[in-house]
Amino acid sequence: MNHLAHVVLAGPDEGLRLGAFLGDHVKGREALSDLPPDWAAGVELHRCIDSFSDGHPAVLGLLERLESPWRRYGGVISDVLFDHMLTRYWSRFGPTDLVELGGQVDELLARHAERLPPRLVRFGAWARSRGLWWRYGERDMLEEIFFLLARRHGRSWPLSHGARLLDDHEAAIEEAFLELFPDLQARASEDRERLYSTWSSM
């Protein structure tokens, strides 16, 4: 899953939200011992969410429909497009007003910038400047995200054209998201309680 979904699935706890972002920046289990317990729980929650999502029948079925070369990068692209779908169905799945949530996330990342990895700090500044959280539903924002992903991965095709996957498979992507996300919410709720309890006792 991508950033917006991870924030939603982390719940309202600030430590878990920070850990949700750090999940893409902290590697291995040993590094978790250097983090505050709630941040570490958030990192593990991020990993649990990604593992559950990657193995979900809805996601596997969607990727099976894709032709080469889309299939190779389908997981990366579909993560972004699922955030797009999340904004489309925000009234069903969102915990609060989307603009309000975006403001909370921007403030959270800025407040803890001195303790976060430089790449995450740069991402937070970019997200704040671009109004990322409430613009995932806009086509031009999707295209900007895919352009940046392509540059980061050094692979212009097909990543920079990821929005075309929405044009060609919108109904299938929407169907997969609507099957996946309720299951993710239920699983994340269980994992949040378990991980928070585990890490808070250390």
TrEMBL record:
Keyword Lipid metabolism: yes
GO biological process: fatty acid biosynthetic process
Molecular-function annotations in GO: [acyl-carrier-protein] phosphodiesterase activity
Keywords associated with the record: Fatty acid biosynthesis, Fatty acid metabolism, Hydrolase, Lipid biosynthesis, Lipid metabolism
Membrane-traversing stretches: none
Keyword Lipid metabolism belongs to the record: yes
InterPro entries in UniProt: ACP_PD
Entry protein name: DUF479 domain-containing protein
Organism encoding this protein: Wenzhouxiangella sediminis
Phylogenetic placement of the source organism: Bacteria, Pseudomonadati, Pseudomonadota, Gammaproteobacteria, Chromatiales
